[in-house]
Amino acid sequence: MIFPQLLRFTLLFLPSLLAATTKPKLPACPDAAHAEYDFVVVGAGAGGGPLAARLAENGFSVLVVDAGHDVVNVNTTIPFYFSRAVEDPQLELNYTYNEFSPGAKFPRDGAWYPRARGLGGSTIHNALINNIALTGHDFDNIAAMFNDSTWSNENMRQYFKKIEHNLYLNQSDPDHGFHGWLKTNVNPTSVLANPMFADPQLIDIATTLATSGAPIDDLNSVVNDAAIGAANPSYTIDESHNRSSVHDRLVDVEAASSSGKGKLDFMLDTLATKVLLCDGEKPKAYGVEIARGAALAVAGNFKGKEKILKTESVRVRYEVIVSAGVFQSPQLVNHDEVANIWTLKQNHSLFAGCTVLSDPKQDPCLEYWIESDHQNLYSFGAALTMIMLKSSPAQPQPDMMLYWAPAFFRGFVPGFADEVAEIHNALTAIALKAHASTRGVVQLTGNHPQDPLHIEKRHFEAGVSGKQDIAAIREAIKVARGIVGHPNISQHVEMQAFPQGGDGSDEDIDDHIMQHVFGHHACCTNPMGQEEDPHAVLDGDFQVRGVDGLRVVDISSWPNVPGWFVTTTTYMISEKAADVIIAATKRAKPY
Ligand SMILES: Cc1cc2nc3c(=O)[nH]c(=O)nc-3n(C[C@H](O)[C@H](O)[C@H](O)COP(=O)(O)OP(=O)(O)OC[C@H]3O[C@@H](n4cnc5c(N)ncnc54)[C@H](O)[C@@H]3O)c2cc1C
User: Fold this and answer.
1) Which residues of 388-405 are buried (b: 16+ CB within 10 A; e: fewer)?
2) Is the dihedral of CA 509, 512, 513, 514 positive or negative?
3) Which of 66, 339, 547, 560 has the least C-beta neighbours within 10 A?
């Protein structure tokens, strides 16, 4: 075990915090009258962005510090370019990690986990899937854990409605919001009526997938929270078929705030290097230490550790909120995902001429997208259909999802964006295990802010539960292969391309799982939990236990990885955090 020897309140994102918080004597707290801001939020992503905007709108002065800058280009705005965004050097915040602990049958050290830095954090490079299903129990479990009904699914659904600006349903739908800041949409299937894109092969595949399970009309409705069957995904895409994310929300609130309502400032390309603590009743966060222009150690363009960082400090009147993402603290949980790919006899017509490049002269598809007012492949989110199932009848809830894409996608491996762009005759099924048992570690390797982290995901290493998770994924892969065996689809299949060969036995599938499992919802490294839980870093109000004035609000705050997908639900908890902080601040005096 890596983390128990660390004090709870040092289980945070910055290696140097460990040094700061274990000092025997903290300085006296400075006069709050000299603080530069009411709040500092470190990290402008799914966790930090919504609450920073809300605090500013409520009249507070807020500084958002982020290690990246404001990147607006074809990669971050055109939905189908998400794979390019993941490999965009301007954004990349690349971590390397080991999939398993030492001694694994298929050692996979030095694997790649892409994150984005910049205004919007990873929400400007993710796959735009807007899915809050299967989180009803997750929220109700948190409510039960803290005996706090504000965490109940019923109450948390209010936050979904508050943030959503639904563009595809009737406004009378009681489960959705129509006036929030997050635009949600479905793929523009009307594009497929264009004779240029006529594609009987794709129609056969799409209709067969859609009827492979009971039809689910709206995966994000209350009644379908734990539904089994087949659904169309929805995406965070706006009315012009561009990406919608908290990036735009931050930009809008910052622009409006200069006219007097609260104050939202951004300090970009800036590394937060330490949370500053002083000697209050408990240790008290009074600000952050920052280094402008210092790239993160894990970032793609990192040139090496700087011996001495030129730092300065920013003080707060009320609180520091850490929203720096999952990988800066020492415990890890994840979804497990495994791809199975087939090549087809014909290319998808919709992909003709598409090279997914930024220059329309080199990409006729981009040229057409611009000229046709966004009426082609590039307006599409990548997944065709999602099929939710139980890996065995004994499961109380669906535990496996198969999501299908008409693309070649092995998982997040370097160069995957070129494969997506260049191979036009593929069909991928990704088996995703919900509520996986995988528990990994994030280990500090030193106390310099630019020291790399040692990360092990440790897939399936949780004893019996790990074996059950492998079996569940194996069953889902068999279901996927069965669906592709349906004559409507098999008539179009050239070959199974990934994995190739093999005898299809359980052992063969398990080897494929171990060799290619990936996961892109790493989470829960600063989990909320009860006082007596030695792993609980946060209480139910996101406060770091043992420290005043310090909260963590991002994907690391979850006690367990939620539902099937994580971004919209992390937006929801960020909005909840804003309510909690505003209420607490009204009660409190500045320190
Ligand atoms: C390739 C990929 C595709 C995905 N697709 C989907 C999807 O389709 N749907 C879905 O629901 N989820 C998806 N996810 C998951 C989702 O995008 C993330 O889990 C979510 O954005 C995490 O939010 P966060 O606030 O915790 O962190 P982030 O959004 O990553 O934000 C953290 C921010 O903190 C900043 N930061 C970090 N350290 C410091 C520091 N020391 N100083 C200053 N700033 C710092 C970073 O620059 C970054 O901007 C995907 C993930 C990956 C990897």
Assistant:
1) bbbbeeeeeebbbbbbbb
2) positive
3) 560
Q: Which residues, other chains included, contact 11 with Cβ-Cβ below 8 Å and sequence gap of 6+?
A: 3, 329, 330, 331, 525, 526, 537
**pLDDT for residue 428:** 98
Closest Cα to residue 386, out of 131, 591, 587? 131
Best residue for ligand 1 mutational test, from 567, 571, 574 (most atoms within 8 Å of Cβ): 567
For the segment 25-45, what is each residue's pLDDT rounded down to a tens digit? 899 999 999 999 999 999 999
Percent of the chain with pLDDT over 90: 84
Mention every residue, 6+ apart, whose C-beta is less than 8 A from residue 140: 151, 152, 153
Helix (H, G, I), strand (E, B) or coil at 282: coil
pTM score of the predicted model: 0.94
- Bridge partner list, 433: 336, 400
Pairing of strands 164-166, 182-184: parallel
Q: Which pLDDT band, with edges at 50, 70 and 90, does 87 fall under? A: very high
Counting from 1 in the atom list of ligand 1, the atom nearest the Cα of 128 is 8
Instruction: List, for residues 137-175, the tens digit of each pLDDT value.
Output: 999 999 999 999 999 999 999 999 999 999 999 999 999
Cα 208 to chain centroid, rounded = 30
How would you class 30 by CB atoms within 10 Å of its CB: exposed for 0-12, middle for 13-18, buried for 19 or more?
Answer: middle
Indicate if ligand 1 lies below 6 Å from the C-beta of 554: yes
